[in-house]
Amino acid sequence: MAAASTGLSERIARQQFEDVAVVHTTSKDHASYYPNASDIVLKLIFNQKTGAIYGAQAVGQKGVDKRIDILATAIKAGLTVADLPELEFTYAPPFGSAKDPVNMAGYAALNIMEGFSENVQWYALSDELAKGKMLLDVRTREEVSRGHFANSINIPLDELRDRLAELDANQEYIISCHSGLRSYIGERILKQNGFKIQNLDGAYFLYSTVKPEEIVHD
Questions:
Q1: Buried b (16+ CB within 10 A) or exposed e, 145-175
Q2: Has this prediction a pTM greater than 0.90?
Q3: Domain finish residue from 94, 114, 134
Q4: Domain that holds residue 72
Q5: Do 101 and 129 sit in the same domain of this protein?
Q6: Per-residue pLDDT tens for 87-107?
Q7: Based on the domain organization, do 191 and 125 belong to the same domain?
Q8: Which of 114, 135, 151 is the last residue of a domain?
Q9: How many structural domains compose the chain?
Q10: What is the distance between the alpha carbons of residues 98 and 107, in angstroms, rounded to a whole number?
Q11: C-alpha pair distances (Å), 7 with each of 43, 57, 108, 151
């Protein structure tokens, strides 16, 4: 396991700047269909209005140094999160994906900047649920059987459009999946149907890693 960081931490960035936003993404270090692909969890700290990149952190088995080197260069060059999806990297299945983890972090940050997504950080989840919000888990039943959030609702993403009537239009929801992609799709579906919805940043994968004691195993 390797970890690396560049720039400011979230805590320092929030002390020094306003409009700080954070996004976590989980992507494979190389093409997922090629053997031995492993996860890289990437945290990007940026300005929600200007897109300025304040810092980044990453954890994974392989390729962590490469991604943080790229983001360190991006910070030094004054690039913004809007530039990250446009960066081009060497591609071959054993070494990288067509869309690199850095590209994906840029897309996720842009979704927040452009108002397509509103996230809740893992450390704020308990407080948000205490306010009366409900947690909607869109993972499959098989995934949920291996571990799930307490007091959550499970509607697999593939069934969500057909089961909207089961949700309360007056209720505020926080949506989660395994790593964030399906929950973003679910968030868009629900917003388009008039629901009040936020996305759990980093999703189940991150939350179960930092707070395993709060995960239920039936």
A1: eeebbeebebbbbeebeeeeeebeeeeebbb
A2: yes
A3: 114
A4: 2-114
A5: no
A6: 999 899 999 999 999 999 999
A7: yes
A8: 114
A9: 2
A10: 14
A11: 12, 9, 19, 37
